[in-house]
Amino acid sequence: MAAERMNPEVSRRHVMRASLTAASALAMSQAGATPARAGTDPGAGAVVAGPGGQFARNVELVGYTDMDHRPAFKMAVRNVRDRWYLYTGHFWDSGWSVVDVTDPRRPEVVAFVPGPKDTWTLQVDLHGDIMVTALEQIFPNFGGDPQAPFEEGIYLWDIKNPVKPRRIGHYTTGGTGTHRNLYPGGRYVHVAAGAKGFRGNIYTIVDIADPARPTEVGRWWVPGQRDGEDGVPEPEPLHTHGFCCANGADVSLHGPPYVVGDLAYLPYGAAGLIVLDISDVTAPAPVGGLNFSPPFHSRFGVHGVLPIPDRKIAFANSEDVSYGKGAAPHASIVDISDPANPWLLSLLPTPEPPPGAPYADFSSRGGWSGPHNINHHQHHPDVQKQGDLLYVAHFNAGLRIYDVSNVRLPREVGYFVPSDPSRRYGPMPEDRLVAQTEDVVVDRRGYIYVSDKNQGVHILRYTGRV
């Protein structure tokens, strides 16, 4: 597929948007005290109220792009020579965008690559000159037609030319496709696969030594996921708000499977955090795990996990899609000094509404609430390495930033709650049209990118003490 370059009219629109963004930032600075700067007490940063319900503390707005009215979902960032590029999947449009973010004050969509019809193209990961994008059946509550033909699996892309991705391979699952996958470079892609004959997503390892002929070499699943197999308890009644596993299973690998050496850490929904030995990629073997459900909610009880082996910890979180009507979500720090016996160290604080907000708590604000994604792409050299700050996309609470230097006592040190969208691009959220911060990526320059279900990408910078 050929990438499409922006025409002059689109470029003029981006200049206008940049001017509007600058005006909005100026209005924010005039509406109240400026955010705390580096070197100040992170607990003393003033809350800055902006237009349309926007709030910030120790975070400043640097730039914004409306993504040519294609809201982004997952993102990956890359530095090529003297340019910086953000690659995104999309919520309501099949395809992928490339955004030039060299000057974060003036981001510019420089390419859009159309995807297959009636297919979700939400997820993206990359390393070197290879990009991996997920293909998945669209769920009905997101506007999908269950009877429509769709593409599934993963596409592999050559991105030597950063603004003209060239498709070079295609892996298929035979089922509903793939959700969130990991490509840390090298020979293998680690996949959350909706494989045929299974309930919920399972773990597959795909060899891309020849990218034109990707080949599955290993797979693992929780006993009972396979059709006709015993092992998994009787499922709960299906939720009408289900998301991220097309057949409604609570025991499902959301992904990405995160690999450190010979160990793979799997965020496996109601089955919790699972650790596998993949020293033999053809025969993954269980090592240990940690259950979170109960007491926390079952569906996506563990949505994401990020191991930090140097600190012998992992960050884990759930994804609550109950509109605040179910059991509590969590964002947790886990001790993995013994991968066979991980245990809970602490829970990150629940976000509180800013002063003057017209809601008592985020669970009653409307839309989905709770943690969703973190700065996950630690395998990529152009992503800021995980240190004492943890960045969390927190649905209707926006971006939350935590000081995790003390793993027993994490604390919130900054946030950015974007203004509510002015236009609905798709059917979600199903209740009120409010901000839904979906993904966060932080580049090694310190710029923070956050996406939303019904608006563009905000580019931010943390201004508190590091």
From TrEMBL:
PROSITE patterns: TAT
Signal peptide (UniProt feature, chain positions): 1-33
Top-level taxon of the source organism: Bacteria
Pfam families for the chain: LVIVD
Keyword vocabulary terms for this entry: Signal
Name of the protein this chain belongs to: LVIVD repeat-containing protein
Annotated source species: Nonomuraea antimicrobica
Highest classification ranks of the organism: Bacteria, Bacillati, Actinomycetota, Actinomycetes, Streptosporangiales
